[in-house]
Amino acid sequence: MTKYYELEQLGHHKDDILLMIHADDAGLSCSQNAATIEALKMGIVNSYSIMVPCPWFWDMANFAKNHPQYDCGIHLTLSCEWKSYKFGPVLPASEVPSLVDQYGYFHGSRETIKKLADPSEVKKELKAQIELALKAGIQPTHLDSHMYTLGLTNELLKVYKELGEEYKLPIFLNKELLQSVGNFTPIPQLGTMVHQVHIGNFNAMKNEGLSAKYKEIIQDLVPGLHILLIHPAFNNMEMKQVCLDHPNFGAEWRQMDFDFFTDPNTATLLKERNIKPISWREIQLSSL
Prior knowledge:
It is a single chain. By secondary structure, the protein is α/β, with parallel strands linked by helices. The protein is built from twelve helices and nine strands. The strands form two sheets. Strands 2, 3, 4, 5, 7, 8 and 9 form a seven-stranded parallel sheet that branches. Helix 1 (30-42) links the parallel strand 2 and strand 3 (47-50). Helix 4 runs parallel beside helix 5 (154-167). The protein is globular. The protein starts with a strand and ends with a helix. Pfam families: YdjC (PF04794). InterPro entries: Glyco_hydro/deAcase_b/a-brl, YdjC-like. This is ChbG/HpnK family deacetylase.
């Protein structure tokens, strides 16, 4: 039976509210890297993960190598959802043909990945991403999945679990995230899951703004292990071009993420609620 992380197992009281504020998509662009680094140094964001196949990977890898004190995961990547900004696998496209389009880039949608991706090629490519990260000097604390594509099917989840076991790293699992990508099938003996995952939403961004949504999330947290997923970047020309015709998780959204989670008032709010920070490194050590 799938288990959840128990607070006592993590060295905390059962009534504690544990929160990881985790920045996805480092390596995606120069803007993403700069905002992620600044957010980490501000101290509220305490975890991030890197997309190895992206053009700006090496910039972020150099930061990770020289700043091992920050919690850093590998954002296992099988998709490229952007209209004009493209990237593909670490391996030659000829070695993983089910993972690429006619031009050799990753597919743009979960539906296409679910339909076409060969699990053996998925594992081959993701092992190559992990090995490249290790070669670059990154000391990963966990594995997670871009667009949660590794939750699309139980066959892909099996690959995810096997990679975690092989590299002795915790993998990011959550029941609601699995259901959000359409996987409602029973998944026995998969691993240990995070209690709750929180993400902003597009309607909130366009109406009252993400600041109000994040304040509501923080105010409503209950005892347990929570992860709040953000995507900090600057709303500059580079990021606008990356996110062309893609307002959901677009440049405006990413600037809002950066602004709220570098605001000293957010740190005050967390302190007022006695919310305790936790990182994947702590989870990793508790499972040894």
